[in-house]
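ERR on first pass: missing label on line 2. Operator R.T. fixed the label and resubmitted. Corrected input:
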Amino acid sequence: MNRKLMIWMVVPVLVTFLTGCPKKKPATPTTDLPVETEVVETPPPATTQEVVQTPPPEPVDETEDPMLSADLQVVNDELRRRGFSPDVFFEYDEISLSEETRERLARNAELLKAQPTFQVTIEGHADERGTNEYNLALGDRRANSVRDYLGSLGVDGGRLRIITYGEERPVCTESAESCWSQNRRAHMIITGRANVG
Amino acid sequence: MRSKALALTASAVLFVAGLSLPRIFAQEPPNPPPEQAPEVTLELNRGQRPPMKLAIPPFRGTQTLSGAAAGAAREMEQTVRRDLENSGYFEIIGPDRIGAVTWSGNMQRDVEPFRALGAETLLLGDVRAEGDRIVFEGRLFDIASAQPILAKRYRGSFTVTRRIGHTFADEVIRYLVGRPGISLSSIAFTSDRSGHKEIWVMDYDGQNQRRITGHRSTSMSPAWSPSGDALAYTSFFNGPPSIYVADMATNRKQPVVTSGSMNTTPTFSPDGGRVAFARSVEGNVEIFSTDRSGKGMRRLTHSNAIDTNPSWSPRGSEIAFTSGRAGNPHIYLMDSEGANQRRLTFDGDYNDGASWSPEGDLIVYTSRRGGRFQIAVTNVVTLATRVLTSGAGENESPAFSPDARKIAFVSRRSGRKQIYVMDVNGGNVQQVTQEGNNDMPDWSRIPVEP
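pass 2 clean. output:
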């Protein structure tokens, strides 16, 4: 618990320092990403003195870049903080990608290309309308649509694994369009990391 | 399979040679009259005759029993009576109409009160206990001649009481109607009542519900092997949805196809040797078939749209499936090797879940009409179509009974998804599950005895 808490205290400060405020420069994310060794050795700014001075939880302190954390939850949260969209949404019974979805996926692709060791699982989901069986196929097509588009933007297809859940894993369970639109989605999550070297 | 199971559980002895007596009513049903306008009518009651009047007085001997034996005797009577009622072949004249009965031993005299009630056939049941076993004797008498036409004796432990009752009821149906009954058939389905969606099996009447899988994941789309020795199904327990077969005798689960991102909706070929299923390949979902061990995989469809949810015809030569190739899901037919693909349904804007009638002339499926899911049935030759359900409640996922007279389906009409059974014309709807959400029924076939 302590270790995780401290990572959280350290991480935002360091990243903010190194990348500048991401809100101000959302369009140029990847070029600002730090190299990990520099992160550890960069002296912290004065305002974050107390935080950084906290002794590291472990002698092996590879986790100061959250992108290197062994905890994939930390990695996914950090990616999201950097502008990664974990979900893109679909129209009813549709597998095509809207303009907004393509923009989101373009940013996702840049972030993924900057972290070439990440293995990504793309889950395809459907709303509850229609049959469970057809919705499984629909979810597979949606996940494939996203994989194909990320691939066209230069993300290595070997890193992208897909799985369909159809309507079996809804994030929202009310029978209303407000809920269905949240369930018609492809969900992207880092589920592993290839060994470097 | 069936005779083997019976040998293990109960001994059945034919002790009156009913075979030498004339089989009344045992002829095949007459041919239906020629359909006059096949494009608009769908005859679902072929060969039906008025129900046969069958008198079933209270089983004799129950009153002399006590404890577990008395309970078993009552269960026996209830099972036989309900099976024969459920079959739809009979008008049952029961204890409420019969009143007190005295038996003289002279059947000419004893059948008289039943003749007066208009009954054509009399069913006499006798129960007694032999230690921890129950002995049941069932007899049929032709009332017009006062002659015995069928008699059977069964002996077994109290735990097989219902099985004995089902067995005798199907003997009665076979003898009086000339067709196999469905009392020993089972319905496989999914239920989330344990906290996870698992595969379950129940008797055809909703009794004896038992869990088959314990994957604690999501398991679905159960499909019986034709002999009832196995269930194929889809499960997520090892990651992507994959196809497994559960052996009913050993409860062992074997993988069939687990490669790739998606393998779903299995269906057995009628010889039990192959499984057709939907598989994701090159970014699309197509129909494949393979043998039961996952070898000899063949691709059957090549469309740019989703092709899924195959159902193998009872004669084996064709496969029905769902395709989105026309813009929205419809039912299609193809030869079992993939040739001759053609569209079957043109009504409704979302059709899926084809299930063949045992004779292979009808396909029942889920069909969205006016924004609501209903059960529809289409004749594969004439394409005549009828919608069997109406109203709200999302009626889905139909499956034919092995005698083609009933359809199991899923509805939300009472709130949660539950399994119902109705007559093939849409009448006589009965709810057979209550606990949790229950879905995707598949009704076992019964091996036709030579």
